[in-house]
Amino acid sequence: MKQINRRLFLNKEHHLYLVKEEAPAPKGNEVLIKIASNGICGSDIHFFHEGRLGNFVVDEPYVPGHEASGTIIQNGPEAKRYAEGTRVVIEPGIPCGHCHFCKAGRYNLCPEVVFLSAPPINGTFCDYICVNENYVFPIPEDLSMEEAALAEPAAVAIHAVQRAQFRLGATGVVLGAGPIGLLTVQAFKAAGGGRVICVDVVEERLQAALRMGADEVIHAGSTETPMDNLGDVVFETAGNRVTTAQLFTVTRPGGCAVQVGWPNGNTVEMNIADMIDKELVYLSVNRYANAFDTALIWLGDGRINGREMITQRYTLEEAEEAFCWALEHPNETIKVIINNE
Question: What's the predicted TM-score (pTM) here?
Fold first, then answer.
């Protein structure tokens, strides 16, 4: 008997709706995954509310979602890595595998990468999806499907920490206490960072940062605390022009500034003289590479607290309500999870 595949489409009129179709069959080295849980990403909200993010535009209906966990229920004829019944997460960026960047291990820079949920490519808000077996990762036995769905955003934070240049015990500053900022606080500590200071304008998020391991928080909108030379390594995770412009001021001489967020408007006026005078290293982050194994280990052993990150839960049938909640209640939301059952 054929399985029915519910797929959640988003159109250019900003409407979400479910379509029932026949489940796909895996080809070649693909595996068919029955989706259990999805996280709503900030990019999903951008496409829902604004219809675009950067160069990606919702022109035609497509399926959003790329933070997914599920179970392999069928292997394609050439898929041999995992047994049916294996619980997995999906790495949504599928590169070509043979270009210069792929061969160098920096496959996130592959010019031919296909990223699930980047319009017009369909994503994971569905019941069943076929994925190349090389881009799924087994979930630790004691990790829930909901928490495993956080492996994708955790991979962003881990990649940022891997890109950063710092000595063990260094002081870190995280600008922005959204989901990526809170994950970066935890990943920095797990990777050997020392004291962590988290900066935001939302008190609820700052309290969450303290619960997740920040040693100090600064309310950027109501503080006289000087921001000069706060950290050896500073991560901008807010995707904000104001915080991006502060990076070189906040970073200590000889330190490292890491651009994780994508600033609104793309263009930021920055004082390059500060960067030169302090001889700073300025690095950027484009999604992730080689980070999912670590993400699952750290989620599994508690170095990253996935349970604390989840603030709301909905079903796939309630998806539009979930998106509206995340859009309208940003101060009360860290991560919304949509469960298929």
Answer: 0.96
